[in-house]
Amino acid sequence: MDALQEEPAHKWMVVAPSMSPENSFRRGEGITAGTTMDNQLVFDVFSNLINAAAILHTDKSLADTVTAMRNRLPPMQIGQYGQLQEWLQDLDLPRSTHRHVSHLYGLFPSNQVSPYQSPELFAAARTALLNRGDKSTGWSMGWKVNLWARLQDGNKAYKLIADQLNPAPKETKGQQGGTYPNLLDAHPPFQIDGNFGCTSGIVEMLLQSHDGAVQLLPALPDNWPAGKVKGLMARGGYAINMEWENHRLVSATITSALGGNCRIRSYQQLVTGNGISVAKGGNPNPFFITADIKAPLSVKPLSKPENIKKVFEYDLTTRPGQTYTLKFK
């Protein structure tokens, strides 16, 4: 908290000096205060402490102080082009195709940008990612696979996987991306985070559990009409097996390591009964706490996006070591 400074115009508390890594808002100018990524990171640090104190029933005084400070952080902002702003001011350039997408930390790996909790920010994050383009270094493509999966666009995520698997150029400079003959990722040169990122993104296409529920096949691309997967791990200690045909789930099993409420989210309806009921209210499982963000600020009137996919949510009370089978309509 001692590193935060008061921003004079709105009295927000921000990191200063701050930057959006390796990027600038004008040629040679990138040092500023309160970049979106820093605001999101501080929000998560504060939220983790607040939630931990509540779960452990300790340090209430410290948690109250941190809560008051978190309330003074800037909200995320939507700029003149409908984009999630990278900077505290609306300085984004829609033609910027910079390889870094630091201001989308709130979308991935964090859970601050959600189609269900904050649909306007969800749409703004999509606009920001579209503006960045696809062509980039290999590791950046790995990031974008994850980001498009979080945006529930399986076809776009699949395209980035295909782009990343293109043969890398022989030169060891530039930002062409691609993959070497040994399947190691190319910036170029080799950078392992591209391999790890792409692998993570493939899992995000099949299973997500960051946003209050275990969501099955959230970003299935057209190129994967049928398939099966075993042993994917979700938050809360749940091991998931799934099988699908014609882009629709056929079956799924959930093995619970820790027990507790497992909230299931799907684009398809489940057969209820046998302990499965339609979800109501917040998820009581502490592994599925959602981000309590401020409403975004926007230079233009906000309207709720119309392309958010309809989902169905169900609760299943689980016991440690037990396996449960899901049936779909």
TrEMBL record:
Residues 208-271 form the Alpha fucosidase A-like C-terminal domain. InterPro entries: 6-hairpin_glycosidase_sf (IPR008928), 6hp_glycosidase-like_sf (IPR012341), AFCA-like_C (IPR049053), GH95_cat (IPR054363). Residues 2-206 form the Glycosyl hydrolase family 95 catalytic domain. Signal peptide: none annotated. GO terms for biological process: carbohydrate metabolic process. GO terms for molecular function: alpha-L-fucosidase activity. Pfam families: Glyco_hydro_95_C (PF21307), Glyco_hydro_95_cat (PF22124). This is Glycosyl hydrolase family 65.
